Amino acid sequence: MQFTKLLSILLFTSILLVGCSNDDDNTPIETNQSPNKQPLGNAANDLLSDINFKGLTIEIVSVQGFEPTTTAVNTFRNFLEDRLFKPDGITINQRSVSSSNLAPFNIQEISQIETTTRTQFNEGDEITVYVYFADGSNEEDTNTKVTLGTAYLNTSMVIYENTLRNLSNNVNAPMLSTIEAATLNHEFAHLLGLVNIGTTLQSQHEDTASRGHCNVQSCLMEAAIEFGSGMMDMLGNGVPELDTQCIADLQANGGR
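User: That's the sequence. What structure does it adopt?
Assistant: Structure tokens below.
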């Protein structure tokens, strides 16, 4: 099941910032990659709890010139620490790569980029998540609806940074860091199984018109955050928070 982000291809659809480097020739290490190649939502409990994994590593791979703002990464890290049980800590590694020159992207192309650029996979009691900051848009974008990002596998997500930057340039638009943080948090929450995609509902709050999203107004997982006008309105007061029902779902699945 893969989901999107203007936060909208419904494809169903921290505290260490370790470093940043430029490396155009990173090939995946020889390791068992299958645990990181499962359907969206399958790693929800592993990400939330400390039962199988005591630590979390986020591998952020950005196209050169399309790196996320420091403010957004810090906000994202705080979100993770608020919701996950990881006694060994949360590490965020950042590096940059050359453009794939494939934009606009479909999700199959994003998955192939992951194959050639992802270098970190689950090892021991450390679970890893891959985040790609792309230099283009989703190929299904229209003049009225664009995709900010997509969580497409159990530990994989893409952020369409070029689209985020274009949105932030609009008159009265939220700051880029706010859009980035909201997109990161929303897509990672899909990895955590929200809404009803790997984390069981504790109450009925799934949006029946937009599967995988919350029907509570102004919740981080509300479907409105996926779309241009709705997102712009929602982010006027900063990055949205999860509502109490979404938090209850995560807590029941091993999270905070």
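The chain has seven helices and seven strands.
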